[in-house]
Amino acid sequence: MTNNASSPHSASLPMGLLATSLILAVGFALVPQLILSAPNEPTMGFVQRIFYFHVPVAWLAMLGALTAGVASAVYLSSNSETADEIAASAAELAVVFGLCAIVSGPLWARKAWGVFWQWDVRLTTTALLWIIFVAYLFARRYGGPGARRLAAGLALFGAADVPLIYISVSIWRTIHPKTSVVPTLDRGMRPAFWAAMLLFSVLFFVLLGMRRRLERLRKQFNTLYLDADEAGLLDD
Amino acid sequence: MSPARFVGQVWLLLRKDVRVELRAGELIYATMLFAAIIVLLFSFAFLGGAPPTVEVMAGVLWVALALAGLVGISRSFEREREADTLRGLLLSPLSRSAVYLSKLLSMALLMSLVVVVVVPGLLLLFGMQLSGAGALGHLLGLLALGILGFTAIASLFSASLGRARGRELLLPLLVYPLSVPVLLAGARGTYDILYGTQESLIDAARWLRFLLAFDVLSITCGLWLFEPLSTNE
User: Which of A94, A176, A213, B231 has minimal Cβ neighbours within 10 Å of its Cβ?
Assistant: First the structure.
């Protein structure tokens, strides 16, 4: 317990987090206005606006997976608790944002392609990413103490899927819009798109920080609980 | 360690696994019987309707392979755990990579037995047809590469399950998602081979190369990850 006693405030909510939360609150009020004022896409019409949501959440699912993969590699090689906490938090975010992408995509596809789901390479690899990180969370939740390293190994494979998702539209013939949509975006759509990207990225890091703090508190609580149990304070 | 020594270790361990299995027989018979049951179940499930298409046959082949294969693999590691021989192996002065590679190869041998049951089963019950020896060679190549990729992942995770709770439940949850590329490429490639035209065989060759790339990647990852994953906290 000595390492925790030296920094009693390490787990308190930092000021930076509060400040960014404020930015988020303002951002989530403003960005919808930008999205509404962006020009209508001529062929797809109003449904195209889901793009301002779908692309940022899909990007964050990939970022979460990559972060979890890198942090897991660090954890496996150095046994760093911090890396493990970051990996677990990022994996959770990959699942949450992945679900957002997997739900928002089909809503658009139903209008644009006429079907909710196509066995397209990008869709398949994204679904695979999502399943891998769900399995990661499952292993951590139900695997007991021995399963943390195992889950870390899983996260590495999950992260390896990310470049595949990214390049899938350039290599295979797919019906999913290509990555080149972004640099060739209509000038009027750019403010809404980049504001949404920025805002969601800030949200990602705020959630990552808060989730990591929760994970650390949980570990401290468990240590304290075990110590108290050993000292005979819980016998009643 | 010199390469020759490494190969020697792998060979020694592989011989040990095969000898144990030949004497006990448990896994060989159980896995083959299980594979036969799965093919029968599939044939019952599709009974009575239109004759199954080549897509269905390709799917049945790879799903049966994955199901029966993992049952065998998980039982093999569970047996090692019950007798505490896995710990013995990990404690011995053998290279961890050699332990991994030998496990991978012995599990691949076990899974080839599934092929011996499933492919004739499909020929008999589903009326699967192979156009000539070339197609058979392609199919066997595809199966060999698919089995290697699948066991590369399955043996990594089943050896590393250690003392994790609910291992029987956890293993398929970890292995099946990661082996989706193998099953996908295998089933698509098999479909192309069974379809049997000149162009579809070119497509099959593409899936063969995809599997080869996946195998190289997953075996490399496995060799690299086996040491940290099998070390318990």
Answer: B231
CB pairs below 8 Å between A and B: how many?
79
Mutant choice from A157, A164, A171 vs B, greatest count of B C-beta within 10 A: A157
Q: Is B12 on the interface with A (CB under 8 A)?
A: no
Every domain of chain A and the residues it spans:
49-224
Token pair of A75 as six digits? 């954890």
Note down pLDDT in tens along chain B; length 233 residues: 788 899 999 999 999 989 988 888 888 999 999 999 999 998 888 877 777 888 888 999 999 999 999 998 988 888 888 888 888 888 888 888 899 999 999 999 999 999 999 999 988 888 888 877 788 888 999 999 999 999 999 999 988 887 777 788 889 999 999 999 999 999 999 999 988 788 888 888 999 999 999 999 999 999 998 888 887 65
Q: Would you call A5 exposed, middle or buried from its count of C-beta atoms within 10 A (0-12, 13-18, 19+)?
A: exposed
* Amino acid at the residue B227: E
Distance from CA of A135 to the nearest CA of B (A): 6
ipTM of the complex: 0.83
Looking at the partner chain, which of A142, A153, A160 has a beta carbon nearest the beta carbon of B166? A142
Q: Is the CB of residue B212 less than 8 Å from the CB of residue B182?
A: no
Q: Which residues of A51-82 are buried (b: 16+ CB within 10 A; e: fewer)?
A: bbbbbbbbbbbbbbbbbbbbbbbbbbeeeeee
